[in-house]
Amino acid sequence: MPHGWQPSFRKDEVKKWSRENLARLTYRVCLVAEDLLLEDFPEPELRIDEPSKLLDMLKLNTRWGLSRTVIEDALLEHGHEIVAELKLDPEQFRLTLIPADIYTHLGRQRGWGEKEMWTHFDGYRVLEGGKLQALAGGDKRFGGSHDVVSFSPDYASGKVLARFGLVQRRRMMDWQKKPTP
Fold first, then answer.
1. Is residue 86 part of a domain?
2. Residue 38, strand partner residues
3. Residue 146 resides in a domain
């Protein structure tokens, strides 16, 4: 059963700062039909890579144990070329890590989240002071396909897999239409 996010505040100063800033934050889950392409392979039994044209095009030797910094650098340097090679408009589409909401939604039916491993997700968690932590999840020990954790962008572990997807850039925008006055 999925769990909703529930912030907890430990220090009084943080509590006050967080409440003031949390009131201005909104997260709207993308709940509309959208076109996307995902790497749809089963979670591997072993931490061995199958040959992958996508990894070759990203100039990555593996999908295991990569830090978010290494992945983001590869996506920034080569992602637009891959999108263009697919004859898609790079201004409309973006190659990225699998979004957490897509992983959670499709994970159980695809058998994801059933191993003791994490998958890198697109996106970051913002900590106090603006420090970013990269999203990941999917470890069966901590909730399976509904598990979401965050790591330092420099964290690299052999227990973290990169799974990529091609998404519409508009998924990153506010899907809600602004009411007209």
1. yes
2. 165
3. yes
Residue 25 lies in a domain: no
State pLDDT tens for residues 68-101: 999 999 999 999 999 999 999 988 889 999 999 8
The pTM of the full predicted model, rounded to 2 decimals, is: 0.77
Domain limits at 135? 56-172
Distance (Å, rounded) from C-alpha 48 to C-alpha 36?
26
Do 14 and 128 meet the contact criterion of CB atoms below 8 Å apart? yes
Query: 3-class secondary structure for the chain?
Result: CCCCCCCCCCCHHHHHHHHHHHCCCCCCCCCCCCCEEECCCCCCCCCCCCCCHHHHHHCCCCCECCCHHHHHHHHHHHHHHHHHHCCCCCCCEEEEECEHHHHHHHHHHHCCCCCCCEEEEEEEEECHHHCEEEEEECCHHHCHHHCEEEECCCCCCCCEECCEEEEEHHHHCCCCCCCCC
